[in-house]
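## Example record

The block below lists the input lines for one assembly entry, exactly as stored, with component labels intact.
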Amino acid sequence: MIRTIVGLAIVLVLAAILITVVDDYTVPSALSGVGELYTQTGVEDTGSVNLVTAVVVAYRGLDTLGEVVVLFSASTAVVLILTLIPIGANPTPPSSIVAFTAGILPGAIILFGIYIITHGHLSPGGGFPGGAVVASAFLLVMLGSNTIPDKSKFLSSIESLAGLTFGLLGFWGMFTLGQFLNNLVIPAGSPGRIISAGIIPLISLAIGAKVASELSGIFSSYRKAGGEE
Amino acid sequence: MNMSLFAAASIGTGIMMIVAAVAALIVKKLISAIIIVGFVSLSASLLFLLMDAPDVAITEASIGAAISTVIFLWGRGKIGGEQ
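Predicted C-alpha cells for the full assembly:
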C-alpha cells in the first residue's frame, strides 16, 4: 500500500514537472545553427539520403563509436554477473501456440531487421534499430524452444569482429584522408542507391551485427541463470 | 495529416499512456503489471511514429515493447512467480 502511494506520488510530481515544461514550449519555426547546415549540405557531404543516419554515423561517428563501447561494457558486465549465478533448472516448456509462432515468424523478422540495417542510409533505421529487431527474432526463437544449443562463443566472436570492423574503418579514414571515421574513403556515389554514402552502409552492418549478437548473448545467459524455483 | 487530427491522436495516445502507467502501479498481479508496462512502451512507439521519428519508433517497439517485456517475464519466473 505504501509502495503504491509512493509510486503514485512520484508519477504525479513528474507529471506536474512535465506540464510546466510543456506550457513554455513553442514549436520553433526554423532550424537553428548546425541543424540548418546539416539539412543544406548533408546529402552532398555524405551521400546519405537519410539525414538522421548521416548525422549519427558520419558527422557524429565518434559519438556512435563511444555508444558502441558503452553498450559493449554494459553487456560484458551483465553477462559476467549472470555467469556467477549457478545454472538453473530448465524453464517450463512453451505452450504449443508460442512454439508454433516461434517456428514461423523469426525468418520474416530477421529479414526485416536486415532490411533496416542495409537500408539505413536510405530509409528510417540503421544499425541500432535493425540490430534490435534481429535480436528480438532470436528472443522469439529462444521463447519457442527449451533446447537451443549454446552459441555464446560464436556470438562473442561476431561481436568482437563487428567492433573491430568499426574501429578499423575509422582508422582507414585517418590514414588515407587524415580524419578519423572520414566517410568518403569510398566514393559517395549517387545518393539514393543502395551502394552509396561511402562507408555508412558498412558501419551500419557492423553496428547491426554487434547489437544483435550482444543482445542475443545477454538473452541466452539470462535464460540459463538459475532462480529460486 | 490534418493538424487537429494529429493533435487528437497524440493527446489520446498520451492519456492512454498515463492511464496505463497508473494502472501498472495499482494492479495486484505482477504479470498484469508487466504486460501493462509493455503496452505503455508500445504507445510510446506509436507517439514517436506520430511525431515523424520512425527510427526511434522501431527501436522503442523492439526493445521497449518486446525485449524488456520478455526479460521481465523471465525475471518473474526466476523470482518464483507472484509476490
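The helical segments of chain B are 3-26, 30-50, 54-78. Chain B touches chain A at residues 18, 21-22, 25-26, 54-55, 58-59, 62-63, 66-67, 70-71, 74, 77-80 (CB under 8 Å).
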